[in-house]
Amino acid sequence: MSVTPEVRTGADTQAPKRPSGEGARRERAARWARGAMGPGLLLAAVATVVWSGSFVTSRALHDSVPPVQAALWRWVVAIAAVAPFALRQTWRQRALVRRHLGFLTVAALLGVTVYNTLVNQAGLTTSAANMGMIMAASPVLMALYERLSGARLGARRVLGTAVAVCGVLLLVGDGSLSLRFAPGDLWMFAAALSFASYSALLRRRPDALAGPVLLFSTFVLGALMLLPAHLVSLTVQGGFEPSAGTVGPLVYVGVFSSALAFFAWNRAIALIGAARAGVVYYLQPVCVALLSYALLGETMGSAQVVCMALILGGVALAAAGRPAR
User: Fold this and answer.
1) Cα separation of 248 and 84, whole Å?
2) What is the reported pLDDT for 79?
3) Which of 15, 50, 144, 169, by CA, is between 20 and 30 Å from 233?
4) CA-to-CA distance for 166 and 314, rounded, in angstroms?
5) Are 75 and 223 in contact (CB under 8 A)?
6) Buried-state track 126-138, b at ≥16 Cβ within 10 A, e below 16
7) Rounded to an integer, what distance in angstroms lies between the CA atom of residue 251 and that of residue 242?
8) What is the CB neighbour count within 10 angstroms for residue 246?
9) Are 93 and 267 a contacting pair, CB within 8 Å?
């Protein structure tokens, strides 16, 4: 008796179907988000730590370099630092730069011209620690911008943000919620709004515009917009004397706080979004308080240590949440 071998049709031998269409797109997006989370958080942390040093230098320069002049020279140094890496690519993408000149101008105004000048102005009448603590308001605004754009933040992120905000408020109030602000504190709130708006705007960055081109273009446009105010400052306040105490901090904020930190921050936002990068930004008050204590002799007591623990705990809780949808 012969047995006829079983013949399988083509449909039977096909491999299991993979998700297609919208399902495949979501799966790829989820895999990419998981892979981008670590590098994105690391880049945001690098930018945050480097920017913490810029608050200390702004405070250190408050009685030797006028705020507008410090801002302009910061960006002149930054342009010189970025030019060798970005000039050729910017020339190749010059048509793209012209097409998106409106976006680049607004980004330069918020992130270069206004933000840094306000930080320098705040350094005249408030401490470096307060500057860092108040700038921690910007992640709240970043999360608000992202929520308004339709993103779901998630319960962990909201809870972690709330814990970090409580730590910041207690830190500003020196252990209590009775807040009293100096004029420099109000300048810093305006700087926080400007920076949060800049970070939210980066989500609309044209995909074809390379990172170095974005940096170089915004640095140049921002410096050009600062030039009239710089000339007025020279006329009214006079110039400053170049020395190790003035040139050194300007080189630091130009090379590290501008070229390096802005590149890291822009890349972090591209990877993980402004709201999640903003959560890492809550580490800045801790970094600034430690640096100002070590370098400027500003005081730090047990209340500050407890508040820093709250901030760190909130950051860890919020960073562990799911990516925004």
Assistant:
1) 21
2) 94
3) 50
4) 9
5) yes
6) bbbbbbbbbbbbb
7) 12
8) 18
9) no
- Identify how many contiguous H helices and E strands the chain contains and give both numbers: 16, 0
Quick one: DSSP state of residue 273? -
Residue type, 273: G
The tokens describing 207, both together, are 């995909």
**What's the helix, strand, coil split of the chain in %, to 5?**
80, 0, 20
* One-letter amino acid of 321: G
How is 37-49 classified by DSSP, letter by letter? HHHHHHHHHHHHH
What would the pLDDT profile of 106-159 be if each residue is shown by its tens digit?
999 999 999 888 888 887 887 777 777 777 667 777 777 777 766 666 777 777
The alpha carbons of the chain give a radius of gyration, in whole angstroms, of: 24
In angstroms, rounded to a whole number, what is the distance separating the alpha carbons of residues 177 and 164? 14
Whether 126 contacts 285, CB under 8 Å: no
* pLDDT at res. 12: 47
Q: Burial code of 179-210, b = ≥16 C-beta within 10 A, e = fewer?
A: eeeeebbebbbbbbbbbbbbbbbbbebeeebe
Task: Report the alpha-carbon distance of residue 264 to residue 260 in Å, rounded.
Answer: 6
Would you say the pTM of this structure is higher than 0.90? no
pLDDT band at 257 (very low <50, low <70, confident <90, very high): confident
